[in-house]
Write a structure and sequence with these properties.
By secondary structure, the chain is mainly beta. The protein is 3% helix and 61% strand. It is built from 1 helix and 28 strands. The strands form 2 sheets. The chain has a 26-stranded antiparallel sheet that branches. Strands 27-28 form a two-stranded antiparallel ribbon.
Length: 380
Amino acid sequence: MDLSNRSPFKPVSVAKIGLAALSMVLMFNAGFSEAQTSGQKIKVTSQRQVFKPKEGQTQFTGDVNVLMEGTQIKGPQADIKLDDKGEAENAVFKNRPTMTRTSGDNKHTVQAETLDMELKSGNMTATGKVVTNITGSKDGSVTIKSDSQIFDDKKNIMRAIGNVTITKDDIVGSSPEAIIFMKPDDTADKVLFINGAHLVQGDSEMHGQTITVKVDTEDIYAEKNTESIFYEVDKNGNRNKTRVLAHLQEMDNKTGTLIANGNAVIYYADYIAKGPKATFYKKSEKLDKIVLTGRAQVEDPDRRVTGDIVTITMDPRQFNAQGNVTTFIKAKNENAQTAKKPGNTSAQPVATATPDDNPPSAYDQEQIIEDATGGSGNPL
């Protein structure tokens, strides 16, 4: 699906007010101009107006104020160009104009160095330190900052390009590019961060090639080389860090449940756990337990446990495994000892075997089996 020319909400509804068929009727008295079609009017006021018939363009400068069907645009300068048929074709607002659109309880504002509207297609391109704010009565406020933004009136899609930062409540997302999908009521539906995304929410963060945020529920879906990092303070006041790597990660913001799918690897305290799938459960807004399924394993400094299901609990801090469980206790590495013979003052080293003298340890054998069988427990 090609989204290269898409954008989100209806910033000016230029398609709906029929500017493609608009004939400009300019009245140059008192800096006032009016365009009219099918009963709809566009009112332009400014300090100065210059009409250039040969170029088919009117230039408005000084306190420019444009009003049209629920939309207001203010700025120092605006150029409106007509085509060969005398119909409005393009409007360019310069020197950091601001556009405000209201629809019921919803309000959109766009501020940029330049706003360029293609009046016939309904598309608009904003360039230069663009700041868009979308406010809805139910979903709160979404603020989008980027180098440029492209709006598509008909498809209800917006594309933000270059140094993108999007803020929704305590969620701050950033990426080189993002796509915002809008609802029919002009409120934001979801945000797709692409080409390498980073998300911060409170005391946690998430990375992924793409990250999608559902605006109303604030649910999060990350895909491709994902990483989550979050911190929990235990009952003793210790700040514990959990790091999660996986192909996919999904966060249910209401319940706080995080699901990591595809080669999930978890680093928690002195545990390292891995498996095809890991689910994180919260209780009283704190991490309560982690459940790994699909032939999972957990390792601490003393042992390595493999089972069909491995559960790690935070309080008390422990883990247990169920289903085809294998446990290997790690041997402690001991330094070479020295021995003395009676009556002999010289120390004699105790004979030790080189790594080549011994077969793989039980721990190493289990690792070889796991690698060879893909976690099935049976050699190929």
